[in-house]
Amino acid sequence: MKIALIGYNATGKTTLGLEIARRLSIAHMSLDDVRYSLDGEESNLEEAVKRVEAFLDNNDSWVIDGNQPRLSERRKLEEADIIILFDFNRIQSLKWAIKRHRENKRKGLEKPREKVGYDYILYTLHGGRTWRQRAHWNRILTRHKDKTIVLKKPCDIDSLLNGRFSLKERDSIQSDIEP
After folding, report:
1. What residue segments make up the domains of the chain, in order of their start?
2. How far apart are the first and last CA of the chain?
3. For the residues of the chain, what is the DSSP string, one character each?
4. In 3D, which of 37, 10, 5 has the Cα closest to residue 128?
């Protein structure tokens, strides 16, 4: 099983990716962790692409989360059996980001790249939600409509994890969530 998680920032892609990987006992990769260091510095693009390509080459089953088009996105989406697109509204994403920031800070796991400040809030509400990004998601939905699930609200994640969707058998995916 190969699962790609894509969508707007602060929607729970990595959290869901880790949980799916745990439940299915498959490899997991977060593209944000490949592309950025813990202090928020961008890693070398060539090295990051090599890491993603090696992950894809060396794993028969995987979950990859994140939006890094330059990190083998086309290959990831073509090889995926299931694509899960997180399409939460802006306010929900911001609430999620603030909650995650507070929890990580309390646990001492704060990542500077996810510090909730003015720039991060502005990006969550506007910068990461351009018409170009929406057009990109629509192209993916059109190209991969037979294998894409769109999550519109946080309770859709619970539905996914509680058996409303089957991740074991591709043919049994049923959903009333409209792409």
Report:
1. 2-172
2. 21
3. -EEEEEESSSSSHHHHHHHHHHHHT-EEEEHHHHHB-TTSPBPPHHHHHHHHHHHHHH-SSEEEE---TTTTHHHHHHH-SEEEEE---HHHHHHHHHHHHHHHHHHT---GGG--SHHHHHIIIIIT--HHHHHHHHHHHHHTGGGEEEE-SHHHHHHHHTTSS-SS-GGG-------
4. 10
Contact 123, 114 (CB under 8 A): no
Q: Position of tokens 């490949």?
A: 34
* CATH class, range 2-172: alpha beta
AA letter at 76: K
Q: How does pLDDT run across 115-154, given as a tens digit for each residue?
A: 677 887 888 888 888 888 888 989 999 999 889 998 888 8
